[in-house]
Amino acid sequence: MAYATTQEVVQTGGFYEGVYDKEAVGTGNGTTKLFTLDHNPVVNGSLVVYVNSVAQTETTHYTVNYITGEITFVTAPTDTYAVEATYWYFTIKIDSDVISDFITEADAWVDEYTGQKWETTTATSEKYDGNDTDTLFLRSDHNPIISLTALTIGTTSITTSYVYVYGDEGKLVLGDSAEESVFLDTDPQYITVSYTYGTATTPGRIKGLARTIAAIKGLIAVMGGTYDDVTSWTARDMAANVGEPWVNLARTAEKLEKQANAMLKNIRKRPSIY
C-alpha cells in the first residue's frame, strides 16, 4: 500500500480545481452508456458519479478514463435519469498515472532513507553471533520491533518477559532474571531470535513526507512546459505577461522542499548496525 494517495499529493501540490457542486453530465435514455465530463484529466480517487441522485460504484456500475474524462456505464442509465458528477481535475500538464509513479518513487526513497518499510508487519527468525555482553542489536532494516516471540542462547531458552525490548532501536537487553546474563560468544550463530517487526499503521509523519516529496516531483516535472504560458494580455501594444506559471510552480516547490526538510529533522535515519 502506498503511503499517499494521488488525491493527497495533488492537494499538497495545489495543482487542481474542484467541481464540488454536481456537474450535469447528461441524461439517461436507456441506451447511451458513454458520457464525458467537462474537465480533464481527472484526479484519481476524487470522482463521484450520481445517477438519479444515487452515488454509483466504480467498476461495479461504471469505468472511467481519467485522462479523457469519459465515463462508460455497465448498464445504460434509465430514461430521464440525470447523470451528475463531482470531481477534481488537473490544472497543470500532468495526470494521475504520472503522479502514481512519483508516489512509488517517493515511497522507495522514504524506505531507503529510514532503513525500513512502514506499511507491513513481518514475523522472522534469525541467527546472530554473540558478543559476551547483555545487549544485542538486531538488523537495523527490521526496526521497529513489535514483539519478541522467542530467544535462545545456545541450547538455553530465555523467557521473553525477562528481556527488555527497545523496539525503535532494535535492541535487546537481558534482564537480571534472564536464564543467561550475556549473549554468549561460544560459537558463530549461537543466538536465535524470533520476533515480529514493522508497522501495522503508517505513521502520519511518514505519509506527510511521502506525499510532499511526490508533490515536489510533480511540480518539477511540469515546470519546463510552463515557461512560455501567457497568463494575461494588454490589448494596446499587444503586451503579455509570460512565465508567471513557472514562477508560481517554482515557489510552491521551494516551499514544499522546506517542509520536507523540516519533516526529515523529526525522522531519524537509522544507522546500519548489523
Word description of this protein:
Helix 1 (6-13) packs across helix 3 (204-223), helix 2 (96-114) crosses helix 3 and helix 3 runs antiparallel to helix 4 (244-264). Residues 226-236 have low confidence and may be disordered. The strands form five sheets. Strands 1-7-3-4 form a four-stranded antiparallel beta sheet. Strands 8-14-10-11 form a four-stranded antiparallel beta sheet, with no helix packed on it. It has three domains: 6-96, no CATH class; 97-115 and 202-264; 121-198, no CATH class. With 274 residues, the protein is of the alpha+beta class. The two termini are 28 Å apart. A hairpin with a 2-residue loop joins strand 10 (145-153) and strand 11. It is 25% helix and 31% strand. The chain has helices spanning 6-13, 96-114, 204-223, 244-264; strands spanning 16-27, 34-36, 48-51, 54-55, 62-65, 70-73, 82-90, 121-128, 135-137, 145-153, 156-158, 163-166, 171-174, 191-198, 230-234, 239-242. The chain has four helices and 16 strands.
